[in-house]
Amino acid sequence: MLCQFCNKRDATIHFTNVIGKNVEKIHICTICAEEKGFDHLKKSNIEKGDLLAGLMNLAAETSKGTSVSKRCPGCGRTYAAFRKSGKLGCSQCYDVFRVRLDQVLSSIHGDTKHKGKIPARQGAIVDLSRRITELQEELKKVIELEEYEQAAVIRDEIKMLRDKNESEGRPDV
User: Fold this and answer.
1) How far lies 10's CA from each of 29, 35, 65, 141, in Å?
2) Same domain for 95 and 52
3) Which residues lie below 8 Å from residue 110, measured CB to CB, with a gap of 6+?
4) Do residues 19 and 60 both lie within one domain?
5) Does residue 115 lie in a domain region?
């Protein structure tokens, strides 16, 4: 593939820029990269932690009003330490730093929920789990609106789906 800038040399640096739903792919040769100020992209072995930490910094710059010094009660890790290393300390960190992690995942993937392929043997379980989650959210809404008859119908549907899942010997959802 030729460099998009000079159209003469082979492109050796390839990167993708995703902003919202817009995807821009750039292919550039090392000489044009140096001329355009992208020479740091020549290094092909970027550490995952460095990449994630850079994305964390981006999320920190875009989020307002959240404390960087917040600590995880499970491991004591701060968000600042997470940004520096790109690594969480324990499973509780996901809950403690959820807002910021969601921002980062949204900026990388466009969403925070998996929407890709599901292994065939797990598909039914995942579909059932998603349906129950949707119903639980709907149940909360109708209870807030004091529509108790509708809430009872939704509650019964959730129970029926869970019972069906249990009778088929699947793991709890």
Assistant:
1) 6, 15, 46, 56
2) yes
3) 18, 20, 21
4) no
5) no
**For 126-148, b where at least 16 C-beta lie within 10 A, e where not — what string?**
eebbeebeeeeeebeebeeeeee
| pLDDT tens digits, one per residue of 89-126 | 898 988 888 888 887 777 766 677 766 777 777 777 77
Range of the domain at 146: 120-167
CB 63 within 8 A of CB 99: yes
Instruction: Confirm if 11 and 1 have CB atoms less than 8 A apart.
Output: yes
pTM exceeding the 0.85 threshold for the entire prediction: no
Q: Are 47 and 29 in contact (CB under 8 A)?
A: no
Q: Which residue has the higher pLDDT, 134 or 101?
A: 134
| Token pair 């890790």 in the structure block, residue | 77
- Domain tally for the chain? 3
